[in-house]
Amino acid sequence: MPADRALSEDTVLEAFDDLLARGKLIYGETKPVYVTDRGFDFEFRICQAFLTKPQLTGPQSNTEIRKFGPHSDIDFADDKLLLAEFNNGTHILVLNKFCVSRPQYILLTKDSTRKQLESLGLDEFKSLLEVFGALEGGERGRGTRHWMLYNCGEEAGSSRRHKHMQVFRYPTSFRVFPDRQPGEVVVPYKHFLRYLDSNRNPSAEELMSIYEELLEQVGRPGPHNVIFTSSWILVIPRTKANFDGADGNGAAMMGMVWVTDEEKIRRWERLGPARVLSQLGVPLPMER
Questions:
Q1: What is the pLDDT of residues 178-228, one digit of tens each?
Q2: pLDDT for 200
Q3: From the CA atom positions of the chain, what is the Rg in Å?
Q4: Which of 29, 38, 74, 209 has the fewest CB atoms lying closer than 10 Å?
Q5: For residue 49, what are the CA distances in angstroms to 25, 160, 168, 278?
Q6: The dihedral formed by the CA atoms of 135, 141, 144 and 148, expressed in degrees to the nearest 10
Q7: Which Pfam families match (predicted)?
Q8: Three-state secondary-structure class, residue 240
Q9: What is the per-residue pLDDT across 121-140, written as a single tens digit (0 to 9) for each?
Q10: Cβ(150)–Cβ(225) under 8 Å?
């Protein structure tokens, strides 16, 4: 599929539903559980897809299943997973096999030697802008809004080594803290946020420059999460992926916590959700 052709949501959902019916991807409707702790809002969801999702430190996926390249650890279990190539073929957009939402995408490097512990590069931002343009109808403010998540390194919550970004529909049932008024939310960890000019579309070069500036503010190379929308870009330095049995990726750091069962939610509640986030990142004083 050519990169300059808008992706039809009907076509994507048709492929998604067919793959789901044939057991080639895993997804189930979830009911949110809302919690507010020390001024920070959380939305917990129990996701059946995570029960069989391989992790870097646990059992790996079936080595006999085709992958996205000779060095990839991401399953290419069916041709319908592949949707399009972008940025002159540096990246491919595929349907995620382990889904929290319908649909859910992975934007991964076509070069399977690229690793998840690398920072984002210019080709990532070029590909991402093309993907957002295709999924959202080519113009900001039209079509369905999306957001990108990048878990850089195992400590940031990455579960695969092949370099990839995740793309989701923007949450409608939960308001993340960058969309709230300054001072309205107490964020329990260090983070570096830049709002984008709402009157113009930034270039990939401009986004890359902003990202590099945010990394400089972090002050140290290492694991981090990147969350990008058409309105802002956020970098969160990470210290660990798991705190006393409560783990999370970049979505969890935003308050959207995806777990395998109710006991995991209870563990987060016993530990204190805001405290968990502070320990997964770089702690800040919690005033409330």
A1: 999 888 899 999 999 999 998 888 999 999 999 999 999 998 779 999 999
A2: 87
A3: 18
A4: 29
A5: 8, 15, 15, 26
A6: 70
A7: Ap4A_phos_N, ATP_transf
A8: coil
A9: 999 999 999 999 998 874 44
A10: yes
User: Position 66: which residue type?
Assistant: R
Q: Which amino acid is at 16?
A: F
At 1, list the tokens: 């599929």
Q: Tell me the two tokens of residue 260.
A: 């395998």
Q: Do you know the residue count of the chain?
A: 288
pTM (2 decimals)? 0.91
Strand pairing category for 146-152 and 164-169:
antiparallel
Per-residue pLDDT band at 29 (split at 50, 70, 90): confident
Please name every residue paired with 242 in a beta bridge, in sequence order, or none if there are none.
Answer: 247
Query: Could you tell me if 1 and 85 are in contact, meaning their C-beta atoms sit under 8 angstroms apart?
Result: yes
